[in-house]
Structure prediction request, 305 residues.
Amino acid sequence: MIDAVRAQLQKVILGKEAVLDRLLVALLADAHVLMEDVPGVGKTTLAKALARTFAGEFKRLQFTPDLLPTDVVGSSVYDPRDGSFTFKPGPVFANVLLADEINRASPRTQSSLLEAMSERQASIEGITRPLPRPFLVLATQNPIELHGTYPLPEAQLDRFGMRVELGYPAREHEIAMLYAQADHHPLDDVRPVLDEKALLSLQAAVRAVRVERRVGAYVVDLVEATRAHPTIKMGASPRASATLFRCAQARAYLDGRAYVVPEDVKGIAVEVLAHRLMLDPKARYSGLRKEDLVREILGVVAVPV
Ligand SMILES: Nc1ncnc2c1ncn2[C@@H]1O[C@H](COP(=O)(O)OP(=O)(O)O)[C@@H](O)[C@H]1O
Ligand SMILES: [Mg+2]
Prediction:
């Protein structure tokens, strides 16, 4: 089933196998994904393609500066005929929500989504409503240096299980893309291959993947190393270690194993950890990248044998 999802995505996004694999890990690990990169590298297209492989309810929400929290979570609508109020759910009440260009909305609107992401429920006018299951947010954003954006605060970035970049395609893939789109866009060919029940049972199978104690300890060694690192002002949280653990299970599952090896943890650590770190200002201005710090930590922390 997962191979079917991958095959659908490969029709649309060429030459990005590693990114597709990470997206599948996130799907199986029940982790929200932030796709961040320059415009035009296929972020929206990839998110749409993933949503279309899924037969459950899909909503897309374009974030703009004038978007309000109620546009995300919903609100009560007054019915003048009988004077009653009925709740009109916002797009957050979906199985897959594409939150496109999330950093263009105001911090208040962003936070209405982020609360839903971590609590998996939405509080509207004093009433708390659970979100459907599965619930997956695929958010995209352009690099925060671009004009007219409100950067997501680090505390809120922590709600994203994973942050991925797409990057430019290799030359031969870019040429192939031109011909693949000649007649119609390949996105139109994506078919649903997975429904809610199937995804929930895959996620349950992932949670059953065995993780030996020494590998669990390795996860915590890595997270602790981010907290102790001299140029990192705020390291990764326990939420981060739980996500890394789960994503390693998903990676093992994708690889057809019933147990996690340290390589599963290493293979996903940059995507799970880097975006949550807060660098100290000196490091930030010197252009140090968080991803490189995680790679440095991966090179230093002893791998269990
Ligand atoms: N690696 C790729 N393979 C196939 N198509 C791509 C690739 N990168 C970009 N594209 C195409 O470029 C166009 C712009 O993509 P889009 O998803 O709108 O970009 P973004 O949301 O990152 O600004 C789409 O038609 C998409 O299919
Ligand atoms: Mg886009």
